[in-house]
What we know:
Helix content is 23%, strand content 28%. It is an alpha+beta fold. Helix 12 packs antiparallel against helix 13 and helix 15 (892-907) runs antiparallel to helix 20. 30% of the residues are buried.
Amino acid sequence: MRNTTKLVVHVVDAQNLMPRDGQGSASPFVEVDFLNQLSKTRTVPKSLNPVWNQKLYFDYDHKVRNHHNNHHIEVSVYHERRPLPGRSFLGRVKISFSNIVQEGDQVYQRFTLEKKSVLASVKGEIGLKFYISSSEQDQRSPHPSPSRPYTSPTQASSSVIEEDITDSETEDSRESFASAEQEDLADSASERVEGKQEESEEAEQVQEAVQTLHRQEVLPRPAPMHSIRLRSRENPQEANNLHSRGANQRHSQQPHGANQLHSQQPRGANQPQPPHNANNLQSYGGDIDPDDFKVKDMNLELGERWPNTNVGERFTGTYDLVEQMFYLYVRVVRAKELPPGLITGGCDPYVEVKLGNYKGRTKHFDRKTTLPEWNQVFAFTKERIHSSVLEVFVKDKETLGRDDFLGKVVFDLNEIPTRVPPNSPLAPQWYRLEDWRGEGKIVRGEIMLAVWMGTQADEAFPEAWHADSASVHGEGVFNVRSKVYVSPKLWYLRVNVIEAQDMIPSDRNRLPDVFVKANVGMQTLKTKICPVKTTNPLWNEDLVFVVAEPFEEQLVISVEDRVHTSKDEVIGKISLPMNMFEKRLDHRPVHSRWFNLDKYGTGVLEGDPRRKEHKFSSRIHLRICLEGGYHVMDESTMYISDTRPTARQLWKQPVGMLEIGILGAKGLVPMKLKDGRGSTDAYCVAKYGQKWVRTRTILDSLSPRWNEQYTWEVYDPCTVVTLGVFDNCHLGSAQSSNGASRDARIGKVRIRLSTLEAHKIYTHSFPLLVLQPHGLKKTGDLQISVRFTTLSLTNIIYNYSHPLLPKMHYLFPFTVNQVDGLRYQAMNIVATRLGRAEPPLRKEVVEYMLDVDSHLWSMRRSKANFFRIMSLLSGYFLVGKWIEDICNWRYPVTSVLVHILFFIMVMYPELILPTMFLYMFFIGLWNFKSRPRHPPHMDMKLSWAEAVNPDELDEEFDTFPTSRSQDLVRLRYDRLRSVAGRIQTVVGDIAAQGERVQSLLSWRDPRATSLFILFCLAASVVLYAMPFKAITLAGGLYYLRHPKFRSKLPSLPSNFFKRLPSRIDSLL
């Protein structure tokens, strides 16, 4: 290394380069020439927007600077041709050396690429930094190494990173990334551990990384494959390149003292992996490819491999959207005439099914019976069958010692029949037991069995014992099975509290402050305190609850007296069953009733003898009904899956059929530790309408294959189906038996049915993205196939012309607070009822699928919504900028054409609306060829998740109410105040403009109002005397006048309007 003065050319990136490889892309690199010193960057494969972020160093003598000022620095961009050696010119830039600054004054600049000759085809820009440095050390390689071929993220994660190239990050970017990678630096220490090491060594490495972070020294390291780094947006061009951080860090050197990063083991390999922390799983190194976060087409020909009964026609059945999977089914029904035990006179029989290394057992009977009945099905995957013989053993359970063999039955797999639905189930048969030693001797006893080869479409598939879940025991056996759930039928219970009579408080010397409290299960609502102190209060308030069939709770009404601010005294109470209330389907009035109240504390119980002593009781006037005309929303209206009212009488006919084939997942991240290595027991949940489905759990696999298909009826196409992938943590282990474990979320996918073409099969791989406290993380890919079949086009069009929700939501709508509260209560009821199923669909799964926390405050969501609004308004801003360019005659030809068009519109105003609609028609036709080819998915940039601040993430994952420290809450409150202050200023400005308009005729400014009314009088005379077309034409031409006739000062109307008063002077 040399410490002489250097000229540093920092090649950052390029944009919109010319394609050169014949496939719409290019593999560009940059070559810099300074005083016959040549140096070039590495090659970025297949990118028209490459990011190099690489420094090139050149010898520089400051004594001859004046001589150097007459020279140029030539920066050329080339495309590297492959496989034949060579390069193609993409453009160049010449920078005068007189523009070079000293270190510390450099700035990021963009230069337009220029042609080398007249016939050259060049486009695009390049971003550079130039400066002279006396402290930089020359880190060039003597001979630039050739660029390596492009590798996918999976391949990159399995290769050892040992490249020694120039540091790819500037000092500015290091400081900007320091605070954002606090969590990731702690992770990086565990990523570099080789094999299994002592826990003390891991703690030292993590502590060393955290100490390094506090010194604001970011160590370059390979970026995790599935994690997105939290980045600042200083350069919009750099922010648009998702992989810029990962692509540059892979060339950085490893920090001193860190172990070499080893390749990831193959999926499913039974080899020990580095130790993990249960709460901080390992991330594997590799590049970040933007395509990994996009929906990919799988191009599968589903249904073609299924049995075809009709020649020349494709078989379409229940399972034509998934890949065919064969299973060997063994149904064990019963046994008879088993030999009794010598001592007890009976036996405790059970059956063991053995196929190669796989064994399955039925339960054993303790009733000492010789006629047991099991009726249990075993399923073995055909792919894992490594034996030609199926053995079925009948054994006698012994309390002490070894179990006795009672006999066996042997089947040749080549002779087993194949059954394909809708064929009828195979009838079981009786088989005589043979001697278990294999001598062919017939022993006493028979067993009824049915053995066949089938697919996952078989009726026995959901309830069967699967060989790949043989390690599950206890309650976990039920938790691995696939199931279909139905949400409970929800009703809105409306309680109209009208009035009460004879409310006598305990202190008869005062009049009561009375209010009514109603309770249904865990829901409690109160009326306001009657404004008048009286014994006959009047409220006329509505209290709305959510109840579910079958009705298990009662409505408890209590009238209470506010004795003190901290004390309420119950005057009377009554409990009413739900079955006695009327169900209404529309807005017709319901008859009200008087109910006698039981005095609280006496006579409440039926057997209380004091009940008869009270001949006088208070009473309350109520109007109660169950609302069947509303749709009870348990999910957000933004992605609702069902809009039908509660009452079945109001349902319309379905308009289509939704079929989803859940194929599998790929590249899942380890979610927990099992035997010292990362493991995932994944299952998938799909929710649409009232129907929930859950696939079976695939044990210990990072690429599970489910191949299960489900069907829903569609009543409205403008609805959303939600699919979520979870890690099963309830498999009968000691950790899950304590009830504290929760099924971990892996990711979620939403598909809006209105974005799907009818009768078309979509087979795509959706990335699973999860926002975690340390940033956005990709946890794998979910592979599904979807088909939306419409039954009638007329019904579809009919739906588009009618309201989304039932009419009661518009005739008697709920308030915003009521909608949020009722949705939360409905979600709790659905989670409670589904959690009581077998196997249960747990609360954490239901909450994640229903987005229970979507209404909570989040700075990230606020930013995302703000930029969504700005994106919508950007079109209007562009139109305004275009009109401004027309008025300034920036493009003379366009300005002349606009003048001609304006003249035609003024002379023929009847053509304006037809022209506008015809223009939109042609725009729609033009956009048809660029229509989306796959369903939309969650956009990390739109969600503002790839550039979120760590503190904002911590705030988003905070509990409600907060659990953070007082100082941190104060800091966030001050930040929220600053944001609210800006919004307050904008709202105040908008209000001021409106008040100025009102002041034109309010005489708050007498002179301004006098001038305005005189102008109105003159304008009315002129408009009456002159033709309207002439005035419009004159005004338009004046507005579009040439800049030579314009002034840079504000116009007269603008000056007059800004001088008008507003009511902001009256604010305190």
